[in-house]
C-alpha cells in the first residue's frame, strides 16, 4: 500500500540523510463528489449503492480514542488516517465488521506541556478486509427463539437445527485494557498493540503480559 510523508514542521531524528520519516496512508476511498459532477446533478442509484456498501475506507481517527491512557500528552497531529470498515449491508440483520486486520506504525509528535516533545512510533489498528455478519442482538434473538422451540416436535427441532451462524464474535482480550491489544477476528488470538521498538524509543521495555511499556528492571 503506497504511503506518503507528512510534514511535521520539525527536523527528523538522524539528520537529512535518514530515510523514512512520518508515513501515512494516501489511498482514500473516492467520495460521491469526485469527478466532473455538475451542481444539482442526481446521483444514480447503482453509484450510490456501490459506494455505500460495506468496505474499507480511509477514516480520521482521534489518537486519544486509541490511546485513552495517555492523557498527559498532546499529539500532533491529533488524529490519524486509518483504513476502517464502514458502510451498509444488504440485510438489516447484518453489520459491517472487519474480517482481517493488521497494525501500522506511524511517527507522531508527542508533547508533554512545559517539559518535552519528541517524535514517537505509535501503532494503530487497520482493517484489511470487511465482511457482513449477523448483528449481536439479532443473533441473540435467534438463539433465544431456537431454545423456545425445543420439545415442540422432532421435525421442528430438525428444521431449526439447520440454522448455523456464518461467524461468531470473539471475546475481548481484556475488559480493562482492551485498547492495548490487537485481536485477530478469525482466530481470536490477542497480541500487543505496543511494539518493542516503540517502547525502546521511550527508554522503556515491552511487558508482553500486560502489553504496556514498563521501566526496565535493574
Automatic annotation (TrEMBL):
Transmembrane segments: none annotated. Gene3D superfamilies: Cystine-knot cytokines, Vascular endothelial growth factor, heparin-binding domain. One of its GO terms (molecular function) is heparin binding. It comes from the Eukaryota. Residues 144-167 have a biased composition (Basic residues). InterPro entries: Cystine-knot_cytokine, PD_growth_factor_CS, PDGF/VEGF_dom, PDGF/VEGF_growth_factor, VEGF_C, VEGF_C_sf. Residues 41-137 form the Platelet-derived growth factor (PDGF) family profile domain. GO terms for cellular component: extracellular space; membrane. Belongs to the PDGF/VEGF growth factor family. PANTHER family: VASCULAR ENDOTHELIAL GROWTH FACTOR, VASCULAR ENDOTHELIAL GROWTH FACTOR A, LONG FORM. This is Vascular endothelial growth factor A isoform X2. It comes from Alligator sinensis.
